[in-house]
Design brief:
Helices cover 84% and strands 0% of the residues. With 130 residues, it is mostly helical.
């Protein structure tokens, strides 16, 4: 449960980075889907550092962990972008509100996959990586 709260704290920071970046890009006239992808990527950079070192305290600094993290975030990005598109195009919800809702859904997916797969120290020990 403590990991989830730490993950949430990092998530709040990532969300702030993502939403503020998204709003800046939108205000400069960027397409909302492109703005979402770029803003999300900025949050991912921050997220990897804090999740790897503070939340999950991964002892492995391998490229394998980083690649797993990227895969998880690509899955999350695809799902949240699809949700964003559907909310904006099908319900006419304002893109900023839609982005906030999509991000909340992405939080659950991202935590679950990172905890169970990316930063799973037990699985890394079994693979002989620690």
């Amino acid at each position: 449960m403590i990991k989830f709260f730490k993950f949430g704290a990092v998530g709040i920071l990532n969300t702030l980075i993502t939403i503020v970046s998204y709003m800046v890009f939108i205000n400069f006239g960027m397409n909302y889907l492109i703005a979402n992808i770029i803003a999300y990527s900025l949050g991912v950079i921050n997220s990897f550092y804090w999740n790897n070192t503070w939340v999950f305290q991964s002892r492995t600094r391998s490229s394998k962990v980083f690649m797993k993290f990227i895969v998880v975030n690509m899955i999350t990005l695809v799902i949240t972008t699809l949700i964003l598109y559907l909310l904006v195009e099908r319900t006419s919800l304002h893109s900023i509100y839609a982005q906030i809702l999509a991000t909340g859904f992405g939080l659950v997916i991202n935590f679950t996959l990172n905890k169970s797969w990316t930063f799973n120290n037990t699985a890394m020990k079994m693979e002989g990586k620690q």
